[in-house]
């Protein structure tokens, strides 16, 4: 009996000793970026989580590459920045993987970039946020947008991608926010020939937390983050509103027409049917 008790106690001591080590190993586990691809660019070699420097070949040297797909093993956020030289020429892409205990950076340098021809292209292709969703999707016709962020976000990181690799965007890399603060962020895109285009991004807080935002972004559910916030901007809402107003207008017109007909039927100048027979 004593041997059994001793064996049980020994197992308990071993498990107790191993538990903190196991917990620490799980807590300190580093996520892995398994793969990443870009639109308008291809890396010269296969991606590996352990290699952090690559060369990118642009399909079109005048078009800025943007993030296309990526695969993560573990909990982390991906943030893309563009690298410029002292002449404000775009030279590459920096991808930052942020996780609970640190960050990992992957550099992608352009291999075939050229800066010979000036251009008047001063359009913005994309605005990336650490925890934010830009609405509507950026196009060549709109200059005013909304950035939807979590209710508890205190630091907003921004990165801008211009359509033309020769253009440059004046964007604050990091903005500190007070609790519940909302603000307007003006951005300027300068073409390689000096032409300027101004944009405005209004920051709006949602009822979602940073954890909910991060989870939705990792799973590609960004539409769900803002669908309740932007319902009034949706085509369905416009159609319903316009349709309701049209129905109310038709009802008002019919009511007025009915009143006029009722007045004409009860005209006071018309003689009653038995009026001629009375003496």
Summarize the structure.
With 279 residues, the chain is an alpha+beta fold. The protein contains four helices and 15 strands.
For this entry, give a set of tags.
single chain; 279 residues; alpha+beta; five-stranded mixed β-sheet; 25% helix
Structural class: alpha+beta
Could you spell the SSE succession in H and E letters? HEEEEEEEEEEEEEEEHHH
- Overall geometry: globular
Q: Let me know the number of strands.
A: 15
The Rg value, from CA coordinates, equals: 32 Å
Amino- and carboxy-terminal Cα gap: 132 Å
* Widest sheet: strand ordering: 2-3-7-6-5
The largest sheet, given as strand count, sense and whether it forms a barrel, is: 5 strands, mixed
Count of helix runs: 4
Low-confidence stretches: 13-26
Overall pLDDT level: 82
Strand content: 35-45%
The percentage helix is 25-40%
Verbal overview:
- The structure is a single chain.
- This protein is α+β, with helices and mostly antiparallel strands and 279 residues long.
- A five-stranded mixed beta sheet has the order 2-3-7-6-5.
- A hairpin with an 8-residue loop joins strand 9 and strand 10.
- It is globular, with a radius of gyration of 32 Å.
Strand and helix map with partners:
Blueprint: H1 2-27, E1 32-39, E2 41-43, E3 53-58, E4 66-73, E5 77-84, E6 90-99, E7 102-110, E8 124-129, E9 133-135, E10 144-149, E11 155-162, E12 168-170, E13 174-176, E14 184-190, E15 196-205, H2 210-218, H3 222-226, H4 235-265
Parallel strand pairs: 3-7, 10-15
Antiparallel strand pairs: 1-4, 2-3, 5-6, 6-7, 8-11, 9-10, 11-13, 12-14, 14-15
């Amino acid at each position: 009996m004593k041997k059994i008790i001793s064996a049980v106690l020994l197992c308990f001591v071993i498990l107790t000793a191993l538990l903190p080590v196991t917990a620490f190993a799980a807590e300190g586990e580093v996520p892995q970026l398994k793969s990443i691809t870009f639109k308008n660019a291809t890396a010269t070699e296969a991606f590996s989580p352990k290699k952090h420097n690559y060369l990118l070949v642009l399909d079109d040297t005048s078009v800025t590459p943007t993030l296309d797909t990526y695969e993560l093993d573990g909990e982390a956020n991906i943030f893309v920045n563009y690298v410029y030289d002292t002449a404000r020429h775009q030279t590459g892409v920096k991808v930052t993987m942020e996780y609970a205990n640190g960050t990992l950076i992957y550099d992608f340098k352009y291999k075939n970039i050229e800066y010979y021809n000036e251009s008047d292209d001063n359009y913005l292709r994309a605005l990336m946020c650490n925890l934010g969703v830009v609405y509507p999707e950026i196009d060549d016709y709109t200059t005013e947008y909304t950035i939807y962020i979590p209710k508890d976000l205190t630091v907003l990181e921004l990165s801008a991608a211009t359509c033309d690799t020769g253009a440059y965007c004046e964007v604050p890399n990091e903005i500190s926010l007070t609790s519940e603060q909302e603000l307007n962020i003006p951005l300027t895109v300068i073409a390689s020939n000096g032409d300027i285009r101004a944009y405005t991004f209004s920051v709006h807080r949602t009822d979602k937390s940073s954890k909910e935002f991060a989870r939705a972004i990792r799973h590609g559910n960004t539409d769900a983050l803002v669908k309740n916030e932007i319902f009034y901007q949706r085509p369905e809402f416009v159609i319903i509103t316009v349709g309701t107003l049209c129905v109310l207008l038709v009802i008002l017109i019919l009511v007025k027409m009915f009143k006029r007909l009722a007045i004409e039927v009860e005209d006071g100048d018309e003689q009653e049917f038995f009026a001629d027979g009375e003496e």
